[in-house]
Amino acid sequence: MPAIPGVTIRPYRPGDLREAQSIVGAGLMGLVPSAFGRAAGSPSNVALVAALAGAAYALSWSLAWALATGLTALGLLYLLCRGLFSSYVREVLRTDMADIEGSYPWREGCGFWVAQQEAPAAGLVGTVALAGEPAAPGACRLLRLSVRRSARRQGVAEGLVRTALAFASAHGYRQCVLETSVLQQAALGLYRKLGFRTVASELPAQSALLSYLTKITLTHLEKRL
Ligand SMILES: CC(C)(COP(=O)(O)OP(=O)(O)OC[C@H]1O[C@@H](n2cnc3c(N)ncnc32)[C@H](O)[C@@H]1OP(=O)(O)O)[C@@H](O)C(=O)NCCC(=O)NCCS
Asked: Where in the sequence is the domain holding 196, given as residue range(s)?
């Protein structure tokens, strides 16, 4: 595995908890602008905002009111996207990421790795987790991949995923599966580079209204080990 200058990939230690949580949370919240951009640019939402602005104009005969209504609708759409990601981050932080050692026990074929900058910076810059996939015997699932913005495009995520996949092969897993979303083009590029293939795309299992408004589809990928 090629070395990443100034960065070491190593197994998680209990003292890493807060930094690991912060990296995963920041990675997810960093997707809010692209989620909003996708939602705001979708033809049905453009039509909805235009219809609301048009209705405001028809009622008030004021361009200012029409503009304010359109901007308010866009603001609400942004808050909806942000709320969606905030509630997902809260769920992640109170479930597996609340107790990383307990959620990813090595003796059960799970793992959690971090990327650590070498001195003098010495902070964590990336995370990845691996767990058995209960629904598919012989398969594992890759999750919680995230790299701090300041450390991106240096091969950190590739190093983390290669480390997790090497562990998975050594542990006897025959397949690795994962989910990402249409918003995560960097992750999709990485997974394709590492030989994952798309097996399905679908709207996430959330409320129909949220799915309709945000237009975020999930992509399921897999790789034979
Ligand atoms: C996805 C993410 C982890 C990539 O981290 P990274 O350390 O910058 O990625 P790497 O430098 O290891 O890049 C490896 C490969 O991924 C792809 N890639 C990475 N960033 C990319 C980008 N912005 N656009 C397109 N492809 C990209 C490329 O194929 C790259 O290989 P190359 O450098 O030879 O072109 C990072 O962008 C991130 O944390 N995003 C937010 C959280 C997230 O989406 N996590 C994925 C969960 S499924």
From this structure: 7-14+109-224
Query: Residue whose CA is closest, atom 31 of ligand 1?
Result: 190
Cβ–ligand 1 contact at 152 (below 6 Å): yes
Query: Is the model's pLDDT at 121 over the cut of 80?
Result: no
Does any domain span residue 200? Answer: yes
**Which CATH number characterizes residue 113's domain?**
3.40.630.30
Q: Is residue 37 part of a domain?
A: no
Instruction: Output the pLDDT for position 182.
Output: 87
In the predicted model, what is the mean pLDDT of residues 55-75? 95
Q: Using CA positions, which residue lies closest to atom 2 of ligand 1?
A: 187
Number of domains the chain contains: 1
Rounded alpha-carbon distances, angstroms, from residue 103 to 49, 197, 210: 43, 27, 29
| Nearest-CA residue for atom 23 of ligand 1 | 186
In a domain, 73, yes or no: no
Whole-prediction pTM value? Answer: 0.93
What atom of ligand 1 comes closest to residue 142's alpha carbon? Answer: 48
DSSP code string of 194-223:
TT-EEEEEE--SS-HHHHHHH-PPEEEEEE
d(Cα 127, Cα 157) in Å, to the nearest integer? 8
Q: Report the pLDDT value the prediction gives residue 128, as an integer from 0 to 100.
A: 98
- Looking at residue 213, its pLDDT comes to 74
Using the atom order of ligand 1, give the atom closest to the CA of residue 158: 12
Give the pair of three-digit tokens for residue 42: 């979708």
180: in domain: yes
